[in-house]
């Protein structure tokens, strides 16, 4: 699963965050918000596209990039059992604290 | 978007910060609500493990990263049981405590899942390749 490798890089996570916040973005728009060269950005975008986290499409003449929500669901699904365990443990902590004398 | 591979939870507890701090940092107390066993010395850099005897066999290796009594506590641990502790393939668990009018607010954050998973898969890939190579050389 290339998706975790794609996500393990902080710059690529930053790109995803920006796409999520601002919606579909051209390379130029993305580049304005990131302290990296255009070449580096293109390389990162290609990794994200390969991992199916990002999709590229044409809006008129301009190529824009947008998030693939389905790919993020895959990650969320993988993390869900870990999150569920935390809910259980924190519930346990709450009960433990209620029974604790000051 | 929060980071996609991060778990964050907030819990308000009706007790003073000192008591909550003790509950989340004292190994004797952790085992009462977190797992069935916890073995570690409460020191930065100390390694230990958690155990859940009823739920799964084996121990989850962990390492204490930072202790800032009574507001910040952080450890890293392994996603899978019975693996020696490894910085790269572990996730970071952070506890932040703040005093509120009614007691204590606890913020939990676990991060680094994608990185841990990715590097763990890589490692397995290499181990498999080395095993294959050994077989081939026999």
UniProtKB/TrEMBL annotation, chain A:
InterPro entries: ArsR-like_HTH, HTH_ArsR_DNA-bd_dom, WH-like_DNA-bd_sf, WH_DNA-bd_sf. One of its GO terms (molecular function) is DNA-binding transcription factor activity. SUPFAM superfamilies: Winged helix' DNA-binding domain. Residues 1-87 form the HTH arsR-type domain. PROSITE patterns: HTH_ARSR_2. This is Transcriptional regulator. It comes from Agaribacter marinus.
UniProtKB/TrEMBL annotation, chain B:
InterPro entries: ASHA1/2-like_C, START-like_dom_sf. Residues 16-138 form the Activator of Hsp90 ATPase homologue 1/2-like C-terminal domain. It comes from the Bacteria. Belongs to the AHA1 family. This is Activator of Hsp90 ATPase homologue 1/2-like C-terminal domain-containing protein. The lineage of its organism: Bacteria, Pseudomonadati, Pseudomonadota, Gammaproteobacteria, Alteromonadales.
């Amino acid at each position: 699963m290339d998706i975790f490798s794609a996500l393990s890089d902080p710059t690529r996570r930053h790109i995803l965050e920006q796409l999520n916040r601002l919606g579909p973005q051209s390379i130029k728009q993305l580049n304005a918000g990131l302290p990296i060269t255009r070449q580096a950005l293109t390389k990162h975008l290609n990794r994200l596209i390969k991992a199916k986290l990002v999709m590229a499409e044409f809006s008129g003449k301009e190529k824009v990039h947008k998030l693939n929500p389905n790919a993020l669901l895959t990650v969320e699904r993988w993390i869900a059992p870990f999150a569920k365990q935390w809910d259980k443990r924190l519930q346990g902590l709450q009960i433990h604290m209620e029974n604790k004398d000051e | 978007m929060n980071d996609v591979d991060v778990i964050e939870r907030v819990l308000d507890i009706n007790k003073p910060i000192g008591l909550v701090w003790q509950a989340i940092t004292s190994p004797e107390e952790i085992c009462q609500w977190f797992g069935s066993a916890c073995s570690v010395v409460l020191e930065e850099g100390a390694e230990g493990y958690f155990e859940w005897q009823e739920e799964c066999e084996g121990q989850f290796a962990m390492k204490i990263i930072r202790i800032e009594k009574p507001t910040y506590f952080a450890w890293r641990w392994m996603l899978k049981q019975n693996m020696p502790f490894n910085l790269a393939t572990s996730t970071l668990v952070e506890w932040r405590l703040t005093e509120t009018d009614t007691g204590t607010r606890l913020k939990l954050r676990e991060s680094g899942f994608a990185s841990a998973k990715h590097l763990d898969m890589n490692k397995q890939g290499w181990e498999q390749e080395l095993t294959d190579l050994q077989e081939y050389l026999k």
